[in-house]
Amino acid sequence: MTAANFAASSPDRTVARVRLRPTMTSDLEFVLSLEQDTENLAFITPWERTQHEAAIRFPDFRHFIIEGGPGLDAVGFLILIGCRSQNQSLELKRMVVSAKGSGFGRAALRVAKKVAFDDLGAHRLWLDLKARNTRAKALYDGEGFVVEGQLREAVKVSDGFESLIVMSMLRPEFTGRRSLGLEMFA
């Protein structure tokens, strides 16, 4: 898959330029360092290097480096799973951005939605997030994802268990947002 390159306008009209390009094995140190960063660790369950290597090679996955800013430097990564699903249901497995509050996460999410619905033919794009991840929840709410439910105490964490919130967007919702100008790309 070739790189997807867009500038996405956020609701406050600032523009973050991002490009998704397929992750290469040489990018994995960057990916692993983002997962191990204490700012991110509380919100994700990190993978082993071998899991990322498999995700790069397995046709049902799309593992991307998020490049952003004027120089299109690596600013994060995201993983889509279910790209060959007969049910046309893709999972946004993980999205981690290094520069929080820069607009790169919102822009990358918009590109991921476009890739999922336009390029991969998804009917449904879904994700789960830890209940304490209020920043991500606000992003997904603002980008049109709908809460489907909660998996109570589904993940073991150091101080007990944490619940997961399941959210999704359907193709008609994405199309409707696009017709309203809410899925803008420059």
Q: Layout of helices and strands, plus pairs?
A:
Blueprint: E1 4-9, E2 15-22, H1 28-36, H2 38-41, H3 49-57, E3 61-68, E4 73-81, E5 89-97, H4 104-119, E6 124-130, H5 134-142, E7 146-157, E8 160-170, H6 171-179
Parallel strand pairs: 5-6
Antiparallel strand pairs: 1-2, 2-3, 3-4, 4-5, 6-8, 7-8
Helix content: 25-40%
Q: Report how far apart the termini are.
A: 21 Å
- The CATH architecture term is 3-Layer(aba) Sandwich
Per DSSP, the total helix count is 6
**Which homologous superfamily in CATH is the superfamily?**
Gcn5-related N-acetyltransferase (GNAT)
In quaternary terms, these chains amount to single chain
Q: Main beta sheet, described?
A: 8 strands, mixed
Average of pLDDT:
91
Q: For the record, what CATH class applies?
A: Alpha Beta
Rg, rounded, reads: 16 Å
Number of strands: 8
Class based on secondary structure composition and strand pairing: alpha+beta
Q: Overview of this structure, please?
A:
- This protein has a single domain (4-179), classed as Gcn5-related N-acetyltransferase (GNAT) (Aminopeptidase), CATH 3.40.630.
- The protein is built from six helices and eight strands, in the order ββαααβββαβαββα.
- The protein is an alpha+beta fold.
- A hairpin with a 2-residue loop joins strand 7 and strand 8 (160-170).
- Helices cover 30% and strands 38% of the residues.
- It is globular and about 40 Å long.
- The protein has helices at residues 28-36, 38-41, 49-57, 104-119, 134-142, 171-179, and strands at residues 4-9, 15-22, 61-68, 73-81, 89-97, 124-130, 146-157, 160-170.
- Strands 1-2-3-4-5-6-8-7 form an eight-stranded mixed sheet, sandwiched between helices.
- The chain starts with a strand and ends in a 7-residue tail after the last helix.
- The longest helix has 16 residues, at 104-119.
